[in-house]
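fold description:
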Amino acid sequence: MSVTDKLRNAKNPLFTFELLPPLKGHSIEKVYATIDRLMEFSPAYINFTTHRNEITYRERPDGLLEKRVTRLRPGTIALAAAVRYKYNITVVPHILCGGFTREETENVLIEMNFLGIDDVLALRGDPQKGSRIFIPEKDGHRNTSDLVKQIVDMNKGRYLEETLEDTTPTNFCIGVAGYPEKHFEAPNMQSDMEFLKLKVDAGAGYIVTQMFFDNARFFRFRDECRALGINVPIIAGLKPVSAVNDIKLLPQTFHIDLPNDLVNSVRKCTTDREAREVGIEWAIMQSKELIKEGVPGIHYYTLGRADNIARIVKEAF
């Protein structure tokens, strides 16, 4: 059952979460352990992130720098397939514009189709490390709406090679990201909302938000979406604070604001363990209010941690 089917048929808000593929050279067992811890709460689906190639420079014996291209977390599609068939659960791999050509994207989608994976979260992705602006690959997509259009074309049996005959349409359910506090590259909230509408008009069936810590921001974002004619389900994305430094790192990394009450509570903590408890209580409060206000689902960004998410879900759902 696709994500949109689950949202349409659900009597209660969906619980879902996101995982990262293991670092290169590491085992899948840690991923399984995280999933095992959360399966008792009947997640509706699991997202798996995709990571573009990174460019690093290594000094050679002659003193010159050697350019190396590597992917630190390969294996997204294989991991998603392994989890799907081990747990009999819907999986949603991320598909990026950044770092991929249109042909590479098509090939990945074909692999997903062969594996019976029919859900995807379409994202532009971040700029290349060390770059201040997003630069697409040659013959790659510049924005998510064009990526969504390519996936929709495949759903209609249209592939990049126009001479193909008797093609089989795919059946991908497409999700996209939304930003309650606007994407950091957008000049203003209005333009960011217009970009979001382009993604939905192109064929996205639902929205998952960037993490936020102030529910009022989410409710305002939801109202603005509806006013603009964006009527697909909007799933709230949450990440609990888990360390003292999160109050510095999260705003820097994700370009979001943290409420004063949360910041002051974390500042009083002398250990990461104490900060983690504050984060759990804050996320429980957020989750309960969101559920009370009728969100179709809450999506948790776990970073591979399960115990805090388990406590939050147990209290809130």
About this structure: The longest helix spans residues 272-292. Strands lie at 14-19, 45-48, 54-59, 65-70, 90-96, 119-123, 173-178, 206-209, 234-238, 297-301. The mean pLDDT is 93.
